[in-house]
Amino acid sequence: MTGHAAIQHYLSTAEVPRLHLGCGPVLLEGWLNADIAPAHASVVAMDATRPLPLPDGALARVFSEHMIEHLDLPSAVALLGELRRCLAPGGRVRIATPDLRQITRLVTPPLDAEAAHYVAVSCRAAGVTGAAVHPGIAANLLIYGHGHRCLFDESLLAAVLIDRGFVNPVRQSVSHSSDPWFRDLEHHGRVIGDDAANRFETLVMEATRG
Asked: Is 138 inside a domain boundary?
């Protein structure tokens, strides 16, 4: 089934149409899993830097985890506008992305236990050991590493969401939500192999299409 046909089939059969954008290797059951480089036959090819191949108001929910930071800022802003277009009135979006504010915890001594653990995990993943382990390495990896191109803190992400036509942006905890469709979705902790490090670095926000 081609990408267009797969999208149309999903939208015509899903009781609650939900898009998982930038899914990577993580497949969510009941969601339209989409990625720029599909790693599985069931994943639909979708480029987040271009208009999404979805009708206006076609979706009830959108979830994206650790993807938007790989876009430059204008593309990230444009994407949030596209997600608003694709959501039905009252539809909701959940964005998980590295938290720019956490970098200040990494470069402002003394480190608390959470920050110290994150530094150790980040440096170990980068192959840095011994005396070379340093908070500045973890901070640089968050800003410049992993193909990251823009980072948000809570205030900036909320402001952009509102600017793009969303209302009531609310910060959530990883895997937790008042919305049952958004519970237990995050998998980045398993990808990096450390749930505590993921909770430290990740900003999660939900908002409603205005």
From this structure: no
- Backbone conformation region of residue 168, classed left if phi is above 0, alpha if psi is from -120 to 50, else beta: left
- Residue 148: predicted pLDDT: 97
Residue 128 inside a domain? The answer is: no
Number of independent structural domains in the chain: 1
d(CA 3, CA 44): 6
What's the CATH code of the domain at 64? 3.40.50.150
How buried is 132 (Cβ within 10 angstroms: 0-12 exposed, 13-18 middle, 19+ buried)?
exposed
pTM as predicted: 0.96
89: three-class secondary structure by DSSP: strand
Which pLDDT score is estimated for 153? 98
Q: Containing domain of residue 8, as a range?
A: 3-99+149-209
What whole-number distance in Å separates Cα of residue 79 and Cα of residue 36? Answer: 14
Query: Does residue 120 belong to any structural domain of this protein?
Result: no
Cβ pair 22, 147 in contact under 8 A: no
pLDDT at 1 over 90: no
Beta carbons of 114 and 102 less than 8 angstroms apart: no
